[in-house]
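Predict the 3D structure for this chain.
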Amino acid sequence: MPNRLAGETSPYLLQHANNPVDWYPWGPEALARARDEDKPIFLSIGYAACHWCHVMERESFENEATAADLNRDFVAIKVDREERPDLDQVYMAAVQAMTGGGGWPMSVFLTPDGKPFYGGTYFPPQPAHSLPAFRQVLAGVAKAWHDERDEVLAAGGRMVATLIEQNRLTASGADSVAGGPGVADGTADDASAPIPQPTRELLDAATAAIEASFDTTNGGWGGAPKFPQPMTIEYLLRRAVTTGDPRPLAVARRSLDAMADGGIHDQLGGGFHRYSTDAKWLVPHFEKMLYDNAQLARVYIHAWALTGDRRYRDVTVSTLDYLTGELRTSDCGFAASQDADTDGVEGATFVWTAEEIRDVVGAEEISPIVAMTYGVKPEGNWEGKTILSRIRSAEEVAAMTRLPVEEVRLRLAWAGDLLRDRRASRPQPARDDKVLAAWNGLAIAAFADAARLLSVGDNTPDLGRSESFLKSAISAANGVLAGLLRPDGRLGRSWKDGRSTGEGVLEDYADLADGLLALYEATFDERWFVTARQLADAILEHFVDPDGGFFDTADDHETLITRPKDVQDNAVPAGGSAAAAVLLKLAALTGESRFRAAAERAIATVLPYLARYPTGFANWLSASHLAVEGIDELAIAGPPDDEATKALLAVAATGFRPNLVLALSADPSASAVPLLEGRELVDGNPTAYVCRDFACRLPVTDPVALRAQLGG
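Done. Predicted structure below.
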């Protein structure tokens, strides 16, 4: 008989709807029952693509005896971390404080009023790997609740105090660096004390720290497991453009190349798996997340714009094709993820045997080329099977086979089509179809940037791809706003099956606003700018921490044991770093100092961490880069379809210009974008106006003159 999760929309919750556990979704009913029956809460948090979440479900939550223990002694609550990132942040911080680590599935025990007193992650059905059996944990917690109640309650109280103190220290982070090295003093509009600000010296120190921790052998940062770090690479590309130093670009390119070659990159279907279980990028954890692919597609297209390396463009195109082909939903948004497992077997859809590849490819002259290129061996490279990874370039294979390079490429393309068709006939991993505002904002930004950069510029334009990607960005923006933007200007978090669930958190507002600003610069349709500005206004009205920075939940959000404020950039940008970057761009587009002042106050709170933990604050570094290096404000007056206007736009799309904001209108006097105010055509010709640091250059109508003003 289904439990209470049967009425939810989250695929993760619905996966547990037929468990014998008497699950509740998080809400007043469950919390009231815990209080009324004086029972502790067992809170289980995970997500649909999580492999170990599935394992714990099969081993424990589908087990009748374990379910009986849970139902007798606890109120069991199941939460999708992607729907409720606020709950996940609060209770993950508690688990990390208790155990020194964290992850999913998260298993945490709460008092009836929500205070955490014991927790962990995965627990096995039998003692193993120094972990107690889950039923032993349940018995121990139940006994402590009945026999040692005072100590349990005291532990919960101490943990809440710890979480509150952590937030306080984060908010006061700027105090510890005021006047310190690499920090400049600035003054907020209404503040009596100076606000410390980053400097070029601080950015240089952070860049040096990133380079020092770089894995020179394999690319990327850290050992096994190894995660993509698109925000770190994005920051390095920005520093490379600004400083001209070849080292940041070399580190970025080594990482981009290694990921593109590795098994973490789906060599046939495009897109990237979540992370590599080894240090060499070979063996992925096979789930595919929207947020990874959106961020990686964007950084690869930026790398292409900077270097002109065709391979980076191709990786972007195949990744965005994966998103449109596999993750686009019926209402035009993008689904959250694809599972790691297929029919309970991790990676079953994606791996091959050498014999199967020979059977599919057929011709003897093709199969050896595939094997040479992708490392196919009879013994395999993972559990007797092969994960395709690019171990040789087409040029290297051509030299080995004495074939022309173009012939090698043609044969690989032909083989790839056959292998993709065979793979499509296999069972496919499940998809989590919910549409999340923040993650779709990241995707909209990637599609919009790719569309803009592929349309014009020094690199070879691809108008067909540009138009296709632009349509995807527009349809996603329309779908997300139709489903999640409410009449009062507030956002919902998640959309599925015609229902909006959850309240938007800071990252939803900031990431969606960033995507809409990118879409405005790709289309110059001012509704995207207007909506982005409205979302930024909501951030300033509902999320600002008076002590500096931003809370992750709004001031009218459900009251939790503490108001979460996670400043670290993890798999997705911290809500605060995304907000700071958006506000700096809007300050340039609007001239409103309130946007910049809020961004500067937020950046000030993380200054102590930027050079010490740069890969954990990489998006903050990019926001700081905007603040330190300044923003070029480019306003163009002219009809978008006029060839002279297009020539000016082509300059803006040439190369990688991360510190540029762009506005255009055929009728600037009627524009909603303040940067266009007073801009007129000179002698009837489309005209460009460049401003920087509160000073404007002379208007120009010649693309060569505009290029000179923008620095080449």
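The longest strand covers residues 41-46.
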